[in-house]
Design a protein that fits this description.
The protein has 450 residues and is α/β, with parallel strands linked by helices. It contains 15 helices and 21 strands. The chain has a nine-stranded mixed beta sheet with strand order 10-11-9-8-7-6-5-2-14, with helices on both faces. Strands 15-16-17 form a three-stranded antiparallel beta sheet, with helices on one face. A three-stranded antiparallel beta sheet has the order 18-20-19. The longest helix is centred in the N-terminal third of the chain and has 21 residues. It starts with a helix and ends with a strand.
Length: 450
């Protein structure tokens, strides 16, 4: 089957599989009471990762699919920061025992939009209520256009070890259409300043499939970005979902590349980055050979969570802030997505969890299969079934889809062992979808495969 036929058959809307079951299948059957029980049940030996969501930006980019809103003053930021501190204390009290935090990830929105004093206060609250591992990773997403000196000093005091800088594309016409003007010079200067305060790992986020994006323009963006010598690069496909993100309706659909062009743009990105000496990690990440992400991939320890690919081996991920999702041994729990409802719940002295899902044995089995496919691009079915104590036919419903994928060369599959060749990397989510028993009811909520 030629590439156009493959795109026509498999470029459908499927989840990014940062969780399983995915967020559209959460419900209010899991609420604050259930989540509190799950937190209290964490054993004393459990290690944690914390994710702090800051749903604010100074301006809203038109391409953005995140839970965020634009604010022009610091007052709502200070109020929100106070709620975050209260939630940290409440979660620690609910757990009821001092647990070790191995990773902290600040996401958004733009976490560095918080006033410097608030960043320090939240960081100090975490240290007061949890035991922070000496080698803990502290990562934060930053808008390179806005990093004043006081925020830079706060990041140094917080001990930031890794930063992610949004780039998207440096082409002026692309930037104009997506509402994000950002020069290469500003981006490079930001990376240099962060390294100057001791940040050891810089990640650049790029996007393909943007309006007016061209092959030559993307190559130019990549070659500029590579001169920054980031430790990691992520290249995401733009998901145009104006029925979910209304501001995306400001992007003319006629300006978006078609599926064939999206495939070409992705191929260009991968070719340029690999030629620069990076290693491909899973679907859309790249890392220098000595980076922790590359080491995790080589050792079979690569994981996937709501932040994408990670070397995080913590037993539980606790989400803090509006819309943040916790991944606990028993299931997923998501906070109220809107800031007023989130703040009201915390002010009332309870957890802000509004929905989630409890995992059953089949969910855990399929989650493990999907994560193995997404991270390792291979799967030993017998080994997986034995590890979960599952019946030999537990995943037989996936076999017809896998056989079809094998027939056209997207995977190697002998009925018990699966592997995805590097050439089929763009279709990795379609392979993982073979194990998803929840997929069909909500296909329009997801991004295209490519």
């Amino acid at each position: 089957m030629d590439i156009d036929a493959l795109i026509a058959r498999y470029d459908r809307r499927v989840p990014r599989y940062t969780s399983y079951p995915t967020a559209p299948h959460f419900s209010d059957a899991v609420g604050a009471t259930t989540a509190a029980g799950w937190l209290a049940a964490l054993p004393e030996t459990a290690s944690l990762s914390l994710y702090l969501h800051v749903p604010f930006c100074r301006t809203l980019c038109r391409f953005c699919g995140c839970h965020t809103s634009a604010v022009n003053t610091d007052a709502p930021l200070r109020t929100y920061a106070a709620a975050l501190r209260d939630e940290i204390a409440l979660v620690a009290q609910t757990i009821g025992k001092p647990l070790t935090v191995r990773q902290i990830h600040w996401g958004g929105g733009t976490p560095s939009i918080l006033p410097a004093a608030e960043l320090r206060a939240i960081s100090e609250s975490i240290s007061r209520h949890f035991h922070l591992a000496r080698d803990a990773e502290i990562a934060i997403e930053i808008d390179p256009r806005r990093l004043p000196a006081d925020r830079l000093a706060a990041l140094k005091d917080m001990g930031a070890t890794r930063v992610s800088l949004g780039v998207q594309d440096f082409a002026p016409d692309v930037q104009e259409t997506i509402g994000r003007q950002q020069s290469f010079a500003a981006t490079a200067a930001c990376a240099e300043a962060l390294r100057g305060i001791g940040v050891g790992s810089v990640n650049l986020d790029l996007v393909y499939g943007l309006p007016h994006q061209t092959a030559d323009g993307l190559r130019a963006t990549l070659r500029q970005a590579l001169t920054i010598a980031p430790e990691r690069i992520a290249v995401f496909g733009y998901a145009h979902v104006p029925w979910m993100q209304r501001h995306q309706a400001l992007i003319p659909e006629a300006s978006l590349p078609d599926a064939r062009t999206r495939f070409l743009l992705r191929e260009i990105a991968e070719t340029e980055i690999l030629a620069a000496g990076y290693l491909a990690i899973g679907l859309d990440h790249f890392a220098k050979p000595g980076d922790g992400l590359a080491q995790a991939a080589a050792s079979g320890q690569l994981r996937r969570n709501f932040q994408g690919y990670t070397d995080d081996a913590a037993d539980a991920l606790i989400g803090l802030g509006a819309s943040a999702i916790s991944s606990l041994p028993q299931g997923y729990a998501q906070n109220a997505p809107r800031v007023p409802a989130y703040r009201a719940a915390i002010a009332a002295g309870g957890l802000a969890v509004a929905r989630g899902v409890a995992l059953d044995a089949d969910d855990r089995l399929r989650r493990a299969a999907i994560e193995q496919v997404m991270c390792a691009m291979r799967l030993d079915l017998d080994e997986l079934l034995a590890a979960h104590g599952a019946a030999a036919n537990a995943l037989d419903d996936a076999h017809p889809a896998l056989a079809e994928l094998a027939a056209i060369g997207l995977i190697a599959w002998d009925g018990r062992h699966l592997s995805v060749p590097a050439s089929a990397r763009p279709f990795l989510r379609a392979v993982a979808a073979a194990f998803d028993r929840y997929l069909e009811p909500v296909p329009m909520r997801h991004a295209p495969t490519i």
